[in-house]
Amino acid sequence: MSTHHDPSTDLTTRDGAPLPERFEDPGLHEHRARVGDSDPKAQKRAERQVVVLFAISILGSIGAVVAYALVPPGETVGSMRMSNLLLGLALFLGLAGIGLAAVHWAKALMNDHERAEDRHPTATSEPVRVKAVEALREGVKDSSIGRRGVLKGAMVTSLALFPLGIAVPLVGNLGGDWDVSASKRTLWRRGVRLTIDPSGRPIKASDVTIGSAFHVIPENLEEAEHPLDEKAKAVVLMVRMDPRDLKSEQGEGWSYDGIVAFSKICTHVGCPVALYEQQTHHILCPCHQSTFDASDSAKVVFGPAHRPLPQLPITVDDEGYLVAQDGFDTPIGPSFWERLT
Amino acid sequence: MSTVDSPPAPASRTTRAAAATADYLDQRTGVGNAVKEFARKIFPDHWSFLLGEIALYSFVVLLISGTFLTMFFVPSMTEVHYHGPWAAMDGVQMSEAFASTLRLSFEVRGGLLMRQIHHWAALIFMASIVTHMMRVFFTGAFRKPRELNWLVGFTLMILGLLAGFSGYSLPDDVLSGNGLRIADGVARAIPIAGSYISFGLFGGEFPGMELIPRLFTVHILLIPALILALIGLHLLMVVLHKHTQYPGSGRTDKNVVGYPLFPVYVAKAGGFFFVVFAVIALMAATMTINPVWNYGPFDPGVVGAGAQPDWYMLFLEGGLRLMPGWEFVIGQYTISMNILIPGVIIPGLLFTVLALWPFIEAAATGDKREHHVLDRPRNAPFRTAFGVAYLTSFSILVLAGSNDLIATHFHLSINDITWTFRVLFFVAPPLAFWITKRICLSLQRKDRELVLHGHETGRIVRFASGEYIEVHKPLDAHERWLRVQHEPRRPIEIEPAEDSRGVRRKGYRLDAAKRRLSKLFYEDRVEPVTPAELVAAQSHGSHDALPLAPEEHREELTAGASGSRHLAPEPEDTEGTQRH
Ligand code: HEM
Ligand code: FES
């Protein structure tokens, strides 16, 4: 593969003169006329196309009003979709017609001569800059701020402090009562019945079959001042397994005949751990897949969580209903700085 | 003064009316000056310049559809029982926010369309901001004098993330509620202040009664106002600097080549707004997004499997999923590295590097001049490779944020996928960097080869001597200019540590650090062909008629990289890539 050159486009060396270090810019391409530029028929055609596009837009917009009037969303997902589809398509036509018409107009009918315009350096020219500096200097001299140190200090301090009058009340009120220790307390305490979420029906131990999982809330939830806040801390996942499968628990006698109850709030960042696999006894958090072993003190077997789900000690009351022996002995949910204090 | 004179020729009614209006306005505002300045202002044209426009237009669509939504949306967490056309939710307890979203979807005619337009526009807004940013990055449009505008754009991107997250949370459905719960968990992991930050956000305990009204104010007032102001500043600076242009003949750092604002750009850009809006309307008409009526209202005890946030939040989600469960306790205090690293440190690092990139590169280049002609990405191999590596780590986080979907879709174990991504997060970005840099350098070599030896024509000529050669068609001046117009960038030289009298120079350490950075950027490089090299190659080509083996030949073509100062190439030097 050797090369052969057509000398006419070659770089010519002027005899003896040294070559420039860089190539030279050949300058703008020559303008090439479009087919339509010299053809009035083509121009007429383009004009007609633009008109048709605008007409489509007009029809679309009228169609939108008709769709609004005739097709209500109705009662089903089907009728809702239909209303959405018709209204949306009509709006689409109303918009697309205008858009395409304008672009087509610009491309086909407006001039396409590229032009060059000069750029100027972004910085101001030297004389202007000198004048600006002069103006500032005069202003500074006028106010004599340079010499009055105390005045300057007073001004800066007062300006710095005035936002406090707004910021302190704002920030002060943001957190309500700021009782951050509330997040360590839940509604669970000795004797509180475990009830089904959301019906609130108490659960008899005998109704819990091996392999089943229950979503549990405390019986006193509805009486709480802020039920949703309390629910966000108190939800529990309860499962029953063959007592022989239970390898360990977080406290002596915290389970009842193979029934174990754990906080449902993931110790990673707090999603509800809602999935239970009865074969493996694994509890899975769908958010970031932390996996806890219900048969082994809810220890983390996989994923980004660090701590086991806190276990709720349970037993049954005289009537055979499941109740808490006590509250959780560690704060539930994600870790935070003062968790252990 | 009036710049709008009545036209000399008999004018149509419209023209006369326009002239009269313009005259009226000018006599009261002096707007003629601005019109004269702007009307014929030149804007360069390229498809990639549309990305920023898409972002702008989808923001306008967000304003229009968002205003519609505010008329019917009730930003309140008061619990109500739903009774309405959607039978599946009859009697269900929910917040007024969720109930009003159901009403928007089922009862307000056009409400669902506006919700879907709003949500699709939000996704397109973020996607166009990100791709626009990629365009600016890979073409070096952030260089002086546009560093500050890069920062404005960066802030807009962050505000877009916040706008999206706050809006996504407003309907108070179970999906977005768990998103908020995750945000709460991340906030609480912050040392010392965590619990207070969480209380400050939620007005007390999670979820409280305050959050939706607060998010509403943030979402419809605070963030849109900031975005609007910054968009104004962003565009003002674009006008001030004039738009950058791609390299090509006639395009220099001292001019701008393109079409006049009026009428071509006004028509094209105005039309393009309608096209963008139309595409969003079409998506909203045909593709369901965020069907909250299927998810149900937020309930702290409920979660759905396979839940996904909007795409622009996936990288955070992915980081949280990949991180092993590291947590330790100092004294009595808990530090959750499993949350801090993916939730705060990694995003912090990624975003800081991105925001500061123009300044990092300026330090490495040591160049104080203004740049208005864009780089071809291949001509900035380090930057391009870095950008691709950056996108690679971002994409791995995004993919990791969908690891459960990948697992169910491809029947893989979550465990294996997570481990694969953990390894990839460290291995893939450097690999991507290395590969991209190699590709850039070889593309540059290919450019050199083309300039030196022209296009292959496939035409074989037989000489009288019986020898065959293939005819190469040399590039014309325009084709050549595109491939040689860029300046070679070399590592900066610094003054020695000691001056002539042996005194240690102040600031040497900083200079040396800059030199090291500069070498990292520019040590490997291929320089553009010089006129001397071309002349040499041509005479060489026509005298040396012996065909060479392709391999040797390729190396030789790139040899001249070092010959930029010499009139004759150095055929012995077969290193295409220069090292100092
Ligand atoms: C700045 C860019 C903006 C982004 C990225 C954004 C994003 C979002 C998103 C993703 C949603 C959830 C929509 C859904 O699926 O239901 C939403 C909801 C909402 N947005 Fe925006 N938005 C923006 C600006 C605005 C503006 C300017 C307004 C009002 C003037 C607004 C008003 C609303 C309202 C009222 C809702 C709740 C209604 C509903 O979800 O059905 N947004 N926003
Ligand atoms: S919240 Fe459960 S794994 Fe992250």
Automatic annotation (TrEMBL), chain A:
GO CC annotations on file: plasma membrane
Q: Which cofactors does this protein require?
A: [2Fe-2S] cluster
For the Rieske domain, which residue ranges apply? 257-323
Q: Name one GO molecular function term.
A: 2 iron, 2 sulfur cluster binding
Q: How does it sit in the membrane?
A: Multi-pass membrane protein
Do you know which InterPro entries this protein is assigned to?
QcrA_N, Rieske_2Fe-2S, Rieske_2Fe-2S_sf, Rieske_Fe-S_prot, Rieske_Fe-S_prot_C
Keyword annotations from UniProtKB, A to Z: 2Fe-2S, Cell membrane, Disulfide bond, Electron transport, Iron, Iron-sulfur, Membrane, Metal-binding, Oxidoreductase, Respiratory chain, Transmembrane, Transmembrane helix, Transport
Top-rank taxon: Bacteria
Pfam families to which the protein is assigned, alphabetical: QcrA_N, Rieske
Question: Which segments show compositional bias classed as Basic and acidic residues?
Answer: 21-42
Q: What does the similarity note say?
A: Belongs to the Rieske iron-sulfur protein family.
**What does this protein do, in the record's words?**
Iron-sulfur subunit of the cytochrome bc1 complex, an essential component of the respiratory electron transport chain required for ATP synthesis. The bc1 complex catalyzes the oxidation of menaquinol and the reduction of cytochrome c in the respiratory chain. The bc1 complex operates through a Q-cycle mechanism that couples electron transfer to generation of the proton gradient that drives ATP synthesis.
Q: Please identify the protein, giving its name as recorded.
A: Cytochrome bc1 complex Rieske iron-sulfur subunit
UniProtKB/TrEMBL annotation, chain B:
Q: Mind telling me what this protein is named?
A: Cytochrome bc1 complex cytochrome b subunit
Which GO cellular component does the record give, naming just one?
plasma membrane
From which source organism is this entry? Answer: Cellulomonas pakistanensis
**Cross-referenced PANTHER family:** CYTOCHROME B (PTHR19271)
Catalytic activity line of the entry: a quinol + 2 Fe(III)-[cytochrome c](out) = a quinone + 2 Fe(II)-[cytochrome c](out) + 2 H(+)(out)
Query: What keywords is this UniProt entry annotated with?
Result: Cell membrane, Electron transport, Heme, Iron, Membrane, Metal-binding, Respiratory chain, Translocase, Transmembrane, Transmembrane helix, Transport
Recorded GO molecular functions are:
metal ion binding; oxidoreductase activity; quinol-cytochrome-c reductase activity
Which residues belong to any copy of the Cytochrome b/b6 C-terminal region profile domain? 248-442
Enumerate the PROSITE patterns for this protein. Answer: CYTB_CTER, CYTB_NTER
| Location of the Cytochrome b/b6 N-terminal region profile domain | 21-247
